[in-house]
Design goal:
14% strand, two-stranded parallel sheet, TIM Barrel, single chain, alpha/beta, 38% helix, six-stranded parallel beta sheet
Length: 252
């Protein structure tokens, strides 16, 4: 009996500790297409639809990235089943394959664009971007050229960060307030550059030391792809505790 009470007490303490470490999952995608050769940055449209169906069936509340950032800034708790959807790079298949599915399910999303790639082969056109914005898609910056920021001089970092913001704002005609680090690489100095450029938040990958996403300029995200093909995997990644047990990775 004493052992049972001890185990219950330990379980209770662990449960309280874990409960305080809940984080709203930020889902990260790149390309959504029918390529037969699997790639970690590619998800088949059928599998992407399955992920969205899972969210709907299990009553997740899909919120926009700006809503999450506002809640973090205000220290406002969100419902436990809140989740955010993001895409990196701005591939054209985000419009042709992902966008119709997002509209079908009524889910908001954020797409981080490589500013210098807009309108080039394989990437979103300005017209497609504006159409998606009207339907509730948030546009963020992903540098000008997708350069790995920690390896650049400060002047080049500044051009990639502030330059992407200026280009997108000129093309779109409104402020662009969210940023994503290419390949998740950043440093404290780069975070300062992003903040001083006027961005309200920045997303990494699973890099960085802030497991609880309290620092708006190094928000951890969870990669999703074709390998996430079972309810158990999806439940685990969307539990809100996935990053708690992930190995810490250096931001650069």
């Amino acid at each position: 009996m004493i052992i049972l009470w001890f185990l219950l007490a330990i379980g209770g303490v662990f449960g309280l500790w874990l409960s305080d470490r809940h984080v709203v999952p930020i889902m990260m995608y790149h390309s959504v297409n029918y390529e037969t050769q699997k790639n970690v940055n590619t998800v088949h449209p059928q599998n992407f639809a399955r992920h969205l169906e899972f969210l709907k069936k299990n009553h997740y509340q899909v919120i926009s990235l700006p809503e999450l950032v506002q809640a973090i800034a205000a220290h406002k708790p969100l419902p436990r089943k809140s989740v955010v959807i993001t895409f990196d790079d701005g591939y054209e298949d985000n419009y042709t394959h992902a966008f119709p599915l997002l509209k079908r399910f009524g889910f908001p999303a954020t797409i981080f664009l490589i500013a210098d790639e807009i309108g080039k082969a394989g990437y979103l056109t300005l017209e497609q971007i504006k159409e998606m914005e009207k339907a509730g898609v948030t546009i963020g910056a992903h540098t000008r050229t997708h350069a790995y920021l920690p390896e650049l001089s400060v002047d080049r970092q500044l051009e990639e960060v502030t330059g992407s913001k200026k280009i997108l704002e000129k093309k779109l005609g409104h402020p662009v307030e969210h940023f994503a680090y290419p390949n998740g690489g950043f440093s404290e100095q780069i975070k300062i550059l992003v903040r001083e450029a006027g961005f309200k938040a920045a997303c990494a990958t699973n890099r960085g030391y802030d497991r609880l996403n309290q620092d708006r300029y190094e928000l951890k995200r969870i990669r999703f792809g074709d390998e996430d093909d079972s309810d158990i995997i999806l439940f685990t990644k969307l539990s809100g505790f996935y990053t708690t047990f992930k190995k810490i990775k250096s931001p650069y």
